[in-house]
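Cast an eye over this sequence plus tokens and explain the fold to me:
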Amino acid sequence: MGSALVVIDMLNTYDFEDADKLVASAEQAVPKIAELIDRARREDVPVIYVNDNYGDWNSSVDELLENGLNGEHPELVEPIRPPDDVSFVIKARHSIFYGTPLEHLLATHDIDRLVMTGQVTEQCILYSALDAHVRGIDVAVPADAVACIHEDLAEAALRMMETNMGADVTPSAECVLR
């Protein structure tokens, strides 16, 4: 069994209410996420991007990437653009598992541990970590590689993941990818 690095909802246009709060946090998280992606690729750890389709049922990875690069903050998308050889799953709700083929993808690659990065800590990251936990999948959420809208809720979410789910929330530099 093995681990995978998951990049959640980072192909984003940042043109919604509270985007300014998320952008401020994402500016800090993106370099850490980029470092984790580079490390995972060097260590042959699978990288999986899971991204919201924002209600567009005809969306593709190319369209989501293009929209993000043409959005309000392309500097947050460019450093972590998905390499051509990574898996990409489109989601429509908060959890990376809900209505997606992710669970099957993990099973076919013998992945039983996820290192979750991305946004939003107090929403999609938290709900996805819980869904992984109830499926018996170990979770790590490097606290400096996730972005939030509400810092107080993000801190509570990280504490909940660590306390209630046994998630590893150490900083990205200390996070074991394998």
Notes: The helical segments are 19-42, 61-69, 102-108, 121-134, 151-165. The chain is about 40% helix and 20% strand. Residues 55 and 92 are 7 Å apart (CA to CA).
